Amino acid sequence: MMYLCLYQIAPPLALAALYLWLERYPAFGRYSLRVIFALGAALQLALWAKSHPNLDNPDSLGFFQLGHGQTADLRLILFRPKLYPIFLSFFATPKAAAFVQCVIKLTICLWIPRLGGRLGWRPAITAWAATLYLTNALWLVEPLKILDTTLYAALFTSALCLAWENLLEFSPRGLFALAVTGGLASLTRQVGDATLLIIALALMLRAYRRVAARPRLFAGAWLVALLLANAGGLWNGIHYRVFQRTVALGISMYTHLSFYELHEPGSPEWDWVEQSLPGERARLGAWDTQWRAQAPWAVNALPHLLERARGVDDVPAILARDREFRERFRVWGMTYPACYATSVGNELQRLLWKCEEIYPQLPFAGWQRAEPAGQGTLYVTAKRIWRGLSYQTPGWLLLLATAGWIFAARGKTAFGVLLVGLAGYFLLIASVQIGFTRYALPTLPVLYALCAQALESLIRFREQWLRYLPAWLRPKAMAAKPNPATKDR
After folding, report:
1. Residues with Cβ < 8 Å from 4, sequence gap 6 or more?
2. pTM here?
3. What is the C-alpha radius of gyration for the chain, rounded to an integer number of angstroms?
4. To pair with 91 at 20 to 30 A between CA atoms, which of 160, 342, 354, 486?
């Protein structure tokens, strides 16, 4: 807990305090956001210039091959959402695709000042959220990889921010834009569907009276969203008679099961595994499943090896194998409910506490060398403070956003809907996937915006209640200001 407070929570809050102090200078409000964005863009593009994107990751290779028509593997075709391979088809090399992904990542940041203007944030708070996003070390590295994270994050963030604006003030144009971005996000990756559904239902209830006056517009917008979201399923259905966007749900579920159930060589689940992969138990051995441990790559690949071993050369075999994985996951969860609940709790703990050891190294050569032997040195402290600024774990950001929602004076419904949607997103991932590094990234821009609104709400709450204190107890800067509530009219 002390580590979390000192090196994860304190540095960002100290940065916010510094920005609030600098806000007294007019030049800060005028130029700070431009300078921060320029420096963040320069850092991102400098890292891209030195990067060497490759296709070593099986996901990367699959996306690229599909986009360029280099494979007819039915398993890859049915397992992949459609939009990202189409995106990669426009680029001859991974380096070119990575450059566009860097540009997309930078454009996501533009939502922060847009929301800041709509919600009335102070310049310091807007600059704070932008700084955390542009210097987040995970986000600095992710656009350099050939993965769907960046494209999905841009669409997912756009959908959530447009939903926030529409929940505050309904707009027909905003509704249509929300439908398009949400549909395309769903076509890129399915993991956010539940969040988008929660927000869509809340928007329907919130805007019912205004929608009633324009039922055709409302119906048309959601029809566009549904068609986009299910375009992959329609494509698969027309060509392969499989009306699903992807059939990888069983793989995801069994990945979770295998990590937590097979870590002991004596587990009875191994008997079923070794029917297809003889000798796999001895080859993998045991591994640690505590929140500090990562899933070994061989364990992560085990469900794919199991699937291949049974033969998945045609559509019926692929679907049958996926159903088998899902059924074993369901039986495991129902037979050992305490074990399943513990595994989900472990993943949520990973979300909250995973601070330093497990995340990738900082993308700066000067910080890569080993720490000095003496603990508590200036170097170690500086490195940990920097990591606290550049690696934001979603867990404590959710806690900060929740505190801001409690003290929010206005816009509480919209704030709460987004908060519930993101909490549901994390809970869904924790119940199926392993680890949050890649899967949490698309939520970070919206989480930063929620935290900025939380800080703004807390500051306003403090100022409101300080007015009721005796003059001798108020801060000097505030004691000199007249109280509008008691000013003679």
Report:
1. 353, 355, 396
2. 0.88
3. 24
4. 160
- Residue 413 corresponds to which tokens in the numbers above? 């419904």
Assign 141 to helix, strand or coil.
Answer: helix
How far apart are alpha carbons 255 and 261 in whole angstroms? Answer: 10
Q: How far apart are CA 111 and CA 377, in angstroms?
A: 39
Residue 413's CB: how many other CB atoms inside 10 A? 14
pLDDT at 238: 92
- SS3 at position 359: coil
More confident residue, 462 or 181: 181
What would the two tokens of residue 130 be? 């932008």
Question: Distance between CA atoms of 189 and 198, rounded to whole angstroms?
Answer: 17
| CA–CA gap between residue 467 and residue 206 (Å, rounded) | 34
CB neighbour list of residue 308: distance below 8 Å, 6 or more residues apart: none
Q: What is the pLDDT of residue 89?
A: 96
What is the rounded distance in angstroms from the CA atom of residue 432 to the CA atom of residue 250? 10
Q: How many residues are present in the chain?
A: 489
Provide the mean pLDDT of the chain.
85
Q: Rounded to an integer, what distance in angstroms lies between the CA atom of residue 116 and that of residue 449?
A: 8
CA distances from 164 to 58, 291, 421 (A): 36, 33, 11
What pLDDT, in 10s, does the model give residues 194-225?
999 888 888 888 776 666 667 787 788 888 88
Joined together, the tokens standing for residue 33 give: 């956001």
Instruction: Give long-range contacts, CB 8 A cutoff, 24+ apart: 415-419.
Output: 415/450, 415/453, 417/163, 417/167, 417/198, 417/199, 417/202, 418/160, 418/163, 418/164, 418/199, 418/446, 418/450, 419/450
Tell me phi and psi for residue 80, to 5 degrees: -100, 135
Cα 428 from Cα 344, distance rounded (Å): 9
By the 8 A CB rule, do 456 and 403 touch?
A: no
Which pLDDT value is given to residue 2?
A: 67
pLDDT the model gives residue 258: 94
Question: How is 242-307 classified by DSSP, letter by letter?
Answer: --SS---HHHHHHHHHHHHHSSSTT-THHHHHHHHSTTHHHHH-----STTPPPPHHHHHHHHHHH
Q: Cβ distance 93 to 114 under 8 Å?
A: no
Closest CA to 165 of 219, 223, 114: 114
| Orientation angle between helical segments 193-206 and 215-229, nearest 10 degrees | 180
Nearest to 201 by CA among 224, 228, 176, 167: 167
Distance between CA atoms of 453 and 467, rounded to whole angstroms? 22
